Structure prediction request, 324 residues.
Amino acid sequence: MIAMTFHGLLPVQCFANFAQHRATRLSLEMDIVSQNIEHACFVIQGPPVLIDAFEMAMSLGPAECQVHTIARQNISIADIDVGEIEEIIA
Amino acid sequence: MFVDSMDDGWLPVALGRDVEKGASAGAVVNGQDIVIWRDKSGQVHIWEDRCPHRGMKLSFGFVRDDHIACLYHGWEFGPSGKCHRIPAHPELDVPPSICTKTYAAAEVAGLIWVAADFERTTSDTYGHAQIVSQSSNLRSDFDLVALRSIYIDAPLVDICDGIAGIFRGSVVNKGAYLLVEADHLHLLFGLQPVSNQCSAVHIVVLGQPDVTMSKTLLQKIQILRLSLEQGEVV
Prediction:
């Protein structure tokens, strides 16, 4: 399980829709941890190579978005809720 | 006539002869890019001409046995349109969500056809072609000779008028194709709308024309194209 954090110019609905579309296409599970116009954090689960493919796709992003940085962090599924994930990746 | 059923929402996209086993070709139908490829068993497939990975045209790819591989990164797609192998990650069990769009395809009367609405499932395809052949009233030894495909920068309606003017025989317009009886020949013109202003015509001769007849036919079609593209009345 990976927490993937994006920073840039990320119109919320557009970026979330794009991410969900790509995750579905790659058969990845995706949950939105937090999101605003400058940052987005998603938790991604699935085969590592497909998570890599997801990161590559998100680095390009839709035309309306600019992704400046992407950070990844392994997280454990056990006893972790959304609030804790935000603390871990902060 | 034997191709009557093919007017039921099907469009011709190529001469069957022009897509050999193990080959692929790109085409455009009403602005939609498609790939036509034939596997080693001879079965024809028509898909959206776009690899789901990076959008490369699959028509540029390589056909091997019963799958086609994208030119860009070698992703391999089986007959169902699903990706079954990614060379960079050979151990990966590719999820079925990684797939390309497939369309219903049929091969009848020397032409390859695609379902015009692109919505029919592949399972409709060969059942439909069988129905067509069963309803055929052709003699079993009736020959078909694929003549050529030709692109013309003109809308189909002008092309149909031009064909009627040039051949001056009996012309039956079936929408997706014309049946023309002229000079003791029966001709089938498959009509493919590429865009509003560009079309492809796929020509099949029903019978066995000699070389002179074939040359004459080809010259007439060339004249038609030049006339239409130069805006002249045929």
Observations:
- The CA atoms of residues 82 and 99 of chain B lie 4 Å apart.
- Chain B has a mean pLDDT of 84.
- The interface with chain A takes residues 52, 86, 88-89, 92-93, 95-98 of chain B (CB under 8 Å).
